[in-house]
Structures are given as structure tokens and as C-alpha cells.
Amino acid sequence: MTREPVHSANDGSTQRICVGIIVGAHGVRGLVKVKSFTATPEDLGAYGPLTDLSGSRVFDLDITGRAKGSILCRIEGVNDRSAVDALKGQKLYVNRDALPCPDHEEEFYHSDLLGLPIFFPDGTKVGTVGALYDFGAGDVLEIRGDTGGAAMIPFTRETVPIVDIASGRIVVNPVPSLLEAPVGPAVDSQAPPSRGKKKPPIRDNESVIRTDEWPDEDWH
């Protein structure tokens, strides 16, 4: 069973949640392409005013349609391509308390999962949540080790049986070849090859002085 994390991002602020990002212009008349992180892309503006991280600048969006991987909208005061280009990469935020609670127990906000400690069923600490990704075949949980390294596992009920937001912990099952031990730095078991010029071996007859090769006459 696949879990359904509600897409959002968190830039370290508990008060504001990133729900979208301006990715570029569509045409030359000020139409804006926005990547929405909400479960339904068109709901981007449904949770109140969209602002920058500080909350000082407000973006009034009028959604007009969809394009591949993004929604199309107009932003008040942005009337040409140059104005849109100046906003490229701008993240759009809403207040955290404006977001609705997930519809059922199998939904989670990405921002609520980031940084949570992860354990095996026996209580062994595995790492912490680094990120969640969707590569098209279901969500993937990235686990970051406390001392470095990372691992990725499917974010399914079979693999991740417990997500306890209230207690701030996640329990995962070991996954053969993907996650069999706590995450740590990658270790290279093979010594790197020598880059120096290899010297030829010394033959036995070159390792000693052969006295029978000295001339018979005396040397003065």
C-alpha cells in the first residue's frame, strides 16, 4: 500500500510552508508558470495569501490553466516577460496554520516528516528523514545517517509501518540491498590502486655480487 504524503516544502520556518515556486514565463505577456506542491495543483491559492519567506511581499495569483508539470497564472503587477524572469526561482509560502489537516491517516505533509528520527522495529536508530521524492513510481523516502551517508526506500506501509507525527518518530523495516543496517558513510573496501610507476622485480642473480666474475689480476 502506497502512502500519500501531501506535497509541501519547509525551509526551516515553522510558521510558513512553501507550497509553490515560480519556474518561468509562458509567452511574452506576463503569464507565469508555477510549480505547485499542493496535492491538487489548482489549490495553490486556496489557503490564503501567498508570500515570500519573510511574509513582507504578497503575490496575488489568478490561475488561468495548466502546462506540463506546472500551472499557469497571472500575478498582479507582473505584466511582461522581463518581470516574470526577475521572479524566477521565487518560492511561494502560506502560513502553516492555514493548511488543512490531511484527510486520513495515510496522508502526511512533507514538511512534518523532514528531520524526524527513524528506527528499526527493535529500536535501533537508523537515521533521520532527509527528503521525499516522487520519481513516477511512488514516493521514495531518503534516510540520512547521523554520521553521513544516505539511503532510499519506498515510502509504503510495508516498508514504513509507523509514522507517528505526534511522538516525532518513524519506524521502518529493513529492506534487502537497500537498508539492512543504520545508515552511515560509504566505505570503500578496496584500496586505491598505486599510481606510481611499477618497479621491475629484482632477479636472484642481481641481488648478490658474484665473486667468480671478478678478474684474476690484482687491482691497485
TrEMBL record:
Record GO biological process: ribosomal small subunit biogenesis; rRNA processing
Q: Where in the cell is it found?
A: Cytoplasm
Query: Do you know which InterPro entries this protein is assigned to?
Result: PRC-brl_dom (IPR027275), PRC_barrel-like_sf (IPR011033), RimM (IPR011961), RimM_N (IPR002676), RimM_N_sf (IPR036976), Transl_B-barrel_sf (IPR009000)
- Nucleus found in the keyword field: no
Ranges for the RimM N-terminal domain? 18-97
Mark out the compositionally biased spans (Basic and acidic residues).
201-220
Keywords (alphabetical) are: Chaperone, Cytoplasm, Ribosome biogenesis, rRNA processing
Q: Which Pfam family name is an example for this entry?
A: PRC
Q: Say which family it is in.
A: Belongs to the RimM family.
> How does the entry describe the domains?
The PRC barrel domain binds ribosomal protein uS19.
Check the record and name the PANTHER family matching this protein. Answer: RIBOSOME MATURATION FACTOR RIMM
Q: What is this protein called?
A: Ribosome maturation factor RimM
Q: Which organism is it from?
A: Haematospirillum jordaniae
Q: What is the lineage of its organism?
A: Bacteria, Pseudomonadati, Pseudomonadota, Alphaproteobacteria, Rhodospirillales
